[in-house]
Amino acid sequence: ALVYTSMLFLCGLYSANIVLIVSNLLKQVKSQLEFMEMTEHLKMTWRAIMQDKNHHIIVKKLDGKIVSSCVCVIIPNLTRNIRPYAFIENVVTHSDYRGKGYATECLNYAKQIAENTNCYKMMLLTGSKKKEILNFYGNARYNSTDKTAFIQWLE
User: Fold this and answer.
1) To which H or E segment does residue 89 belong?
2) How high is the mean pLDDT of the chain?
3) 136-151, pLDDT tens digit by residue?
4) H-type helices in the chain, by residue range?
5) Separation of alpha carbons 117 and 15, rounded Å
């Protein structure tokens, strides 16, 4: 089942549990992440995300386990006839569940959100340079030729 969490709708999971589940999923995929303790800062950040109508966390659950997820943020915009755009990040799938279409389901749901909010485009950033990951995004109809991204890391 594809589960969508936005604002205070937590799909039957306690917010603390889903944060830890998602952080564990991220940890499995991104070795540089440290395990996230349930701190006050984390709780406040989670509440802020859940209360932001433009911040969407999409997760794929299988047998009660989150196996894939992505984040879709709708960004209000003054150009393009005042149409927003969607920003996709943190596309993550547990290594045991890759290649089964779960991340594609999450991305397709993000596209539905973008279309329903009248976005004129979706942008996705990945830190991966792996050919199979880049091909996955290409097959999902994202291109890497229309825009150039520059990142400035802040400490």
Assistant:
1) strand 85-93
2) 83
3) 999 999 999 999 999 9
4) 15-29, 40-51, 102-116, 131-139
5) 25
Cβ proximity of 43 and 85 under 8 Å: no
Quote the tokens at residue 154: 């802040």
Number of H helices, E strands in the chain: 4, 5
Digit-coded pLDDT (tens) for 54-98:
999 999 988 888 899 999 999 999 999 999 999 999 999 999 999
| Token code pair at residue 15 | 């917010």
Distance CA 14, CA 19 (A): 9
Are the C-beta atoms of 81 and 75 separated by less than 8 Å? no
Cα(48)–Cα(42) distance, integer angstroms: 10
For 122, the enclosing helix (H) or strand (E) is strand 122-124
Higher-confidence residue of 111 and 12: namely: 111
Task: Please report the pLDDT score of residue 10 as a whole number.
Answer: 33
Give burial (CB, 10 Å; 0-12/13-18/19+) of 88: buried
- Residue 2, helix vs strand vs coil: strand
Percentage of residues of the chain with pLDDT beyond 70: 76
Token reading at 49: 């995300």
